[in-house]
Design goal:
Number of domains: 2
Number of helices: 6
Structural class: mainly alpha
Largest sheet: none
Helix content: over 70%
Order of helices and strands: HHHHHH
Number of strands: 0
């Protein structure tokens, strides 16, 4: 092996090491951004505004279980996190741990509303991301009984009023 061959091999090794280092930096940065996005989404979900929205929705569903007069901000929020989960932007375990119980129960309580929207607008894609997210959750949950859904909604209705203990 000549000096030129050794020099070329060292240069190639240096380039390879730099590429591996760059790959790990990009991967670490992507993970950090995903964790920050998750923290932001979690903060938004627990914000005073969203807590009030969730409480109002739950109270409405408790008093009028089949109402179609729904503020859909909670469903739209779930639709967005479902898209981020499907695209693997957010960690599935963190999402399931943080949102699964809420998504599962609100979906069960709002199924009539989703079906009405799809029929009214002739668009089966409405809330389809959330529905697919629910199908992935099905491995963790059994079907909710009306009593469990009502208990969940009662807890949600107390949000933002210092009654969550």
């Amino acid at each position: 092996m000549t000096t030129s061959d050794v020099t070329n091999l060292l240069a190639l090794s240096s380039i390879l090491a730099a590429l591996v280092g760059l790959f790990w930096q990009v991967r670490s940065a992507k993970n950090l951004v995903a964790l920050q996005l998750f923290a932001d989404i979690s903060s938004q979900y627990e914000s005073e505004n969203m807590q009030s929205c969730r409480a109002a929705l739950a109270a409405k569903l408790l008093s009028e279980p089949n109402t179609l007069d729904i503020d859909d901000r909670v469903l739209v929020f779930y639709e967005n996190i479902a898209i981020l989960e499907r695209k693997r932007v957010l960690d599935r375990d963190l999402l399931f741990n943080t949102f699964a119980l809420d998504v599962w129960n609100y979906w069960a309580a709002l199924r009539h509303y989703v079906e009405d929207c799809r029929k009214r607008f002739s668009d089966d894609s409405l809330y389809a991301e959330t529905e697919q997210f629910i199908k992935r959750l099905r491995r963790q949950f059994k079907d909710s009984s009306p009593a469990l859904i009502e208990q969940f909604l009662q807890l949600e209705a107390r949000r933002g009023r210092g009654q969550m203990a």
